[in-house]
Amino acid sequence: MKKHVLVITNIKSDDLLPLEKARDIIHPFDASVEVIKFLHSTDQLDTSIEQLKDSLNSTVDKVFDDASEITSQVIYSDNIADWVVNRCQQTSVDLVIKTGHRSESLFHTPCDWQLIRHLPCPILIASHVKWKSKANILLTVDLSENKIMHQELNSLTLNWGKVWSQVTHTELHAMYSIPVANSLLELGIVDKYTVKQDNAAAVQQKMNSLLNQFELDSVTSHIIAGPPVRTIPHVANELHSDLVVMGTIGREGVSGFLLGNTAEKVLHHLRTDCLIIGPPQVST
């Protein structure tokens, strides 16, 4: 079945990177692409809407060698996240690609965070760094819980990595961070190296079993101890990873406001692309 990718591009700049990454991603797949440029009601325009549409079409033609499976439109909306979520629900979008914007503050939830929490499909938050010729992908898994939701997120993460690796010939790495509270580390109450030494053998066995289940025995695994918000960016940096794939439960309400999500916190420190996968949607 043909996949459908939705790309959000920036109206205020020549932001070609999401389009170029969408082009590279869909090249091995049988996928159609929908490119959306958003306008806010307060935007002061020097050109007409028709000229903006023509400019977008011209950009699409320039980026994609074959634009026959590409559609594009300019949309007025003051709530980009709501529009995108509704669009994905109505048209069965398989992947959203968007350039990340780090504009978060205590009392403001940026568009990126809303999309992470509410999208019914994975989202690729694209950095402004191009992929290397010999790219590698870091898959993050959670081995601390046996809950069905965590198992499903591990499944989705490994499946995405497996498919991506097969079609792009990308090297895969998998990591698990043995959780250690940051406050305990700062107070010197717990030593992360001791935690790793005490738990590494059992955790490595779980990792090997999980990778074997998905026929990913050749994947290099990394076991580390510490807060994932720190360890994931650290390992990604050490490996020079081009993409980090991780699942998110997507906390809502008070818990989301106070605790946030690991994926959201990791994004503060990542300087690479991040594919974020939410739990499977339950049909009602």
TrEMBL record:
Protein name per the record: Universal stress protein UspA-like protein
All copies of domain UspA, residue ranges: 170-277
SUPFAM superfamilies listed in its UniProt record: Adenine nucleotide alpha hydrolases-like (SSF52402)
The organism of origin for this protein: Shewanella psychrophila
Primary subcellular site in the record, as a coarse category: cytoplasm
GO cellular component terms given for this protein: cytoplasm
Domain of life assignment: Bacteria
Compartments where located: Cytoplasm
InterPro entries for the chain: Universal_stress_UspA, UspA
Stated family: Belongs to the universal stress protein A family.
Swiss-Prot/TrEMBL keywords: Cytoplasm
Function: Required for resistance to DNA-damaging agents.
Name of one Pfam family that matches: Usp
